[in-house]
Structure formats: C-alpha cells, structure tokens
Amino acid sequence: MRAVLMAGGSGTRLRPLTCDLPKPMVPILNRPIAEHILNLLKRHNIREVIATLHYLPDVMKNYFHDGAKWDMNITYVVEQEKPLGTAGCVKNIEDFLDSTFLVISGDSITDFDLTAAIRFHKEHNSKATLVLTRVLNPIDFGVVITDQEHRINRFLEKPSNSEIFSDTVNTGIYILEPEVLKYLPEGKESDFSKDLFPTLLAKGEPMYGYIAQGYWCDVGSLESYRQAQYDCLEKKVQLDIDYPETHEGIWIGENTFIDPGAKIKAPALIGNRCRIGEGVIIEGGTVIGDNTTVSPYSDFKRPIIWNGVTIGEEAHLRACVVGRGSRIARRAHVLEGSVLGSLSMIGEEAQISPMVRVWPSKTVEAGAILNLNLIWGNVAQGGHSASGRWERITAIVSEGSALTPSCWWRISPFGPMTVMMFEWAKSSTVIFPPSLVSRATLLP
Questions:
Q1: Which of 223, 253, 305, 392 is the most exposed place for a label (fewest CB within 10 A)?
Q2: Residue 128 phi/psi, 5° resolution?
Q3: Residue 343 phi, psi (nearest 5)
Q4: From CA 287, how far away is CA 274, in angstroms rounded?
Q5: How far is CA 319 from CA 115, 375, 377, in A?
Q6: Three-state secondary structure of 52-98
Q7: How far is CA 185 from the centre of its chain?
C-alpha cells in the first residue's frame, strides 16, 4: 500500500522556526515530524511513500534521500509554481495511485492504529474514509458527524462557536480509492474538506469516518509545538526515541558529558555529543539538541533547544524554543513562550521577554531588553537602565505595523520620540525610554 505524505506547507504560524525549514522538518525530540510519520507508516507495513513538496523542498529531499536508511521507498513530487491545496497535490500524482492509498498530513504527531483504519475502510467498502478523533475544543478543526453505521452525513471546516455540532474532528488522515480523484479538476487548487468531500457527499458516494483511539496533535502553532514535545516526553504518545533511556524518563545521547554537579529532573532529553556544565539545573520538560554546550550554573525550565546551540554561564531559559546554532551569552534570560530563530545571537544579560519572537540570524546586544518581535534588520541594541538615564532599544517593527505620532502620544507622558525611517528599508528604528519598554509592544 502507498501513502501520500503532504509535506508542502510553509508553516507561517510556526515562524520563525519555519523561516528556513518546511513545517514537516521541524524537530520533535530532535527528529523531524516527517521522520516520526515515516516510523508510524513503517510500523503499519506501509513502505511506499510519495511526498508532495512545495516550500523549501530540498531540505526534506536532502535529509531523507530515497528513504533507504529508514527501510522505506520515497518518491518526491514538487509543486513548482503555486501550491495546489491538499486535494490538488494528490490529484497531481494520480498516475502513481492505482489502488487503495493513504493520505497523511506532514504536520501532526500521532500513534493511531492505521492498520485498523485500513481494515475498517475495506470492511465498509468505502470510497473515502476519514480518520477522526475526539477533542475538547473543535473550533480549529473540521467537525464531522456520522450515523450509526459510521457513514458521514455532515461536516464543517473550522466552525465558529455557534456552529459546533460535534467533538469529532478530521485529523487529515484519509484512506481513499483512486476513482474519487475523478471529481477533482486538473492542475487547479482544491481542498479535501472544502471541495472533494462535499462532492462525494452530494454524489452519494460511500464515505465513512473511523474514530481512532490514541494520541494526535496538529502541530500548527508554537503553543501546540511545545505541547507536543512535552506530551512525547511524558510518554503520552507511542514514539520511537533515538536515545537510550538512562533513567526513568531521562534520555541521554551518545558521547554526552554531564558534570556530576548538574541536576536533571525527569522527563528530559539530552542529545548526542552535548556538554552540560557544573551546577546546571535542568527541570522536567526540557529537550536539548545534539552538539549543544551548556555552561555552568545555567538554569532551564522546559525549554526546547535545537541542535548546535551554545549557552553561557548562568543563563536562564523558561519554556522557550531556541533554534539551531544559536548563541546565548552569560546571564541572558529567554522567557516563557519566546522563540529564537536559527543562528540567533543573544548578548550578555540581555532579556527576551515572554512571547517575543526573533527571526533567524538576528543579534540582540548585551543588556538589551527585547519586548517586540525582531523580524527585519539585524540588531537589537540596549543598555542598562539602573542609572535612570534613557535606555536605547533599537527594535525592528515588521512591515505593516503602525506606530503613528498619535499612537505615541496615547502611550507616552514624556513627549516626542525619535523615529528614523528610510524609504528603502522595511522597518524603522525606534528609541524608547526605559519606562516604555514594557508598555509599547508592537507585534507583526
């Protein structure tokens, strides 16, 4: 049986993590989401995979190649011009699909029993089977209702609060017969939930819903990305972890040195070839990537740290995400919900405030307090405010954000500020007094 892995998404809600990675290549426990999906498919004896790509396709191709390392056979199809949508990308490869096939989204973590779902599909002589699950809050998903025989009779994509009529939602996993693709137009954008499934319902084609048991997380936001990591560490999902479990709930990779004076609480994962210094405190929920160095007396509470990161002495990381190759200097603070893109540089005693995002290859200089997203430009600068003088914070405001003179007067009792703007730039440089750093927050 073949599987179609939909892996073309750009993952805009996961930025800056997806600025240089397609969404299926974002790591969960130091391995790409797509790798966990391949392991799931292999567990259910599905080894022929067609991956549909669009955004940064070479990243996935260069990582998996032909799939032989995973005992899989992977074929890649790249949408060259514009994305064709969830159904359109499958229509685009219908010549490869001559028998029952499975479609799975490349941005979810799950341990569903796919073998049972396929058996259900065949037993019901279904043309299209949607794998469903029950969730507490269905507002962000496609809601589905089935009859007593599990035949689908109603569904609605991402309903409002007043439209919710079920807690059973579409997981983006489908088992299809190739003849259903005849209902889709050639070379045009189309969607399973908005186009194909309503057509099948209107035509009276047998379409069923299989309610799966097990774990499922749609990794569509930074919050769900962090939560998926924590759930995996807590063994809420059956997942292949590439590191030995040296103690209950603690995984440590090969050639990793941990100073005897460091303290690690479960659950936690530390990758290969890492160095953890004296007095480091690692709280439960922490994930540390391969080739990462943590200097003495740093303090971690549930951060997700990617590969190749260097962290200075007495740094404090709190429920944040740190992209690959980043450098965090001594006594810097990276606080709850903040995200550093790859190759970020955070200076000594700098602070990244809660929920702030820093795009890749940006520098936050020593002593800066960053309260706004750093997107365009390269550097955020600042100095200490203990002396009572104005603190210079050079921050990058994304294109489309508005900081007008009237806006300034509404938030400032101090009078004018300095704004330097250039027609060729996509941003402005803003100089704030220290008392306004926490009051004037601009988001993209």
A1: 223
A2: -145, 125
A3: 65, 25
A4: 12
A5: 36, 21, 26
A6: EECCCHHHHHHHHCCCHHHCCEEEEEECCCCCCHHHHHHHCCHHHCC
A7: 31
Phi, psi of 200 (to 5 degrees): -60, -40
Cβ(267)–Cβ(288) below 8 Å: no
Secondary structure class of 162 (helix, strand, coil): helix
- Residue bearing tokens 């998996």: 64
Tens digits of residue pLDDT in 162-214: 555 567 888 999 999 999 999 999 888 999 988 999 999 999 999 999 999 99
SS3 374: strand
| Mean pLDDT taken over the chain | 85
Q: Buried (b) or exposed (e) across 259-296, using 16+ Cβ within 10 A?
A: eeebebebbbbbbbebbbbebbebbbbbbbbbbbbbbb
Query: What does the alpha-carbon distance between residue 75 and residue 108 come to, in Å, rounded to a whole number?
Result: 20
pTM for this one?
Answer: 0.84
pLDDT exceeding 70 applies to what percent of the chain?
81
Q: Given the structure tokens 């219908």, which residue do they identify?
A: 94
**Pair 321, 340: CB distance under 8 Å:** yes
Closest CA to 52 of 13, 24, 12, 32: 24
Instruction: Tell me which range, 99-108, 138-147, 377-386, is most confidently predicted by mean pLDDT.
Output: 99-108
User: Which residues fall within 8 angstroms of residue 58, CB to CB, at 6 or more apart?
Assistant: none
Pairing of strands 339-340, 357-358: parallel
